[in-house]
Amino acid sequence: MLMPYLVPSGLAWHAPKSLQVDTSGVQSRMGGELSTGTAELRAQMGAFLRGEGDPQALVEAAQGAELLLPLLGEGAVWSSELDDIRWLFAFTSTGEMHAFLQQKWEAAKPDELPAELARYVRYLRVGGEELMQELLPGLVERDRVPTGVVVDVSSGLRAFLPPVSGIVPDGIALDKEYVAKGELATW
Q: Residue 143: what pLDDT?
């Protein structure tokens, strides 16, 4: 079974993309303290960085965490594609999200990003399990693009949760037999 992994800091990112998501069934809250599940996720990410990580514990912590998804518009979450996999950007805190947005704002070309990002950002706060089990399958079904989640992408603790069994539902996992037979390519 493939498990989440940390990516070297030299990873080159393509320009972020806006990805429309149906958020009608998602419970979102603004502000407030992050859950203890989110603190556990950050602890597990740190353990991986030190070479002491347990893959199953990291997945469970991600499922139990509250994650922040920055929005570019009504229901449009930020994502990027790397090696034919779409990655949704999720954050463990508003501070981590702000650091990412600040880096993107400073590197953006004129008019590449919405002007309001200089002042504020809207975001969803969603449970990790809900993200992995409900939102990702809906996106994959609609767009036919394998999709994973990268947590705290601009942080030294960043962790990728790839679209593989044990992390996402088997129906969208890249390591399942139907994918190996090339059926994913026919989407």
A: 86
Mean of the pLDDT values across residues 126-144?
91
Distances (CA, A) of 103 to 97, 121, 148, 160: 10, 14, 22, 19
Q: Which two tokens stand for residue 175?
A: 């390591």
Q: How far apart are CA 182 and CA 187, in angstroms?
A: 10
Q: CA 183: distance to chain centroid? A: 25
Tell me the H-state helices in the chain.
36-49, 55-64, 94-107, 128-130, 136-143, 177-180
> Of 51, 54, 74, which is closest to residue 62 (Cα–Cα)?
54
Closest listed residue to residue 31, CA positions, set 94, 77, 74: 94
Q: E strands of 2-155, at which residues?
A: 17-20, 66-73, 76-82, 85-90, 122-127, 147-151
**Tokens 């994918």 label which residue?**
179
88 closest CA partner among 103, 99, 107, 75: 75
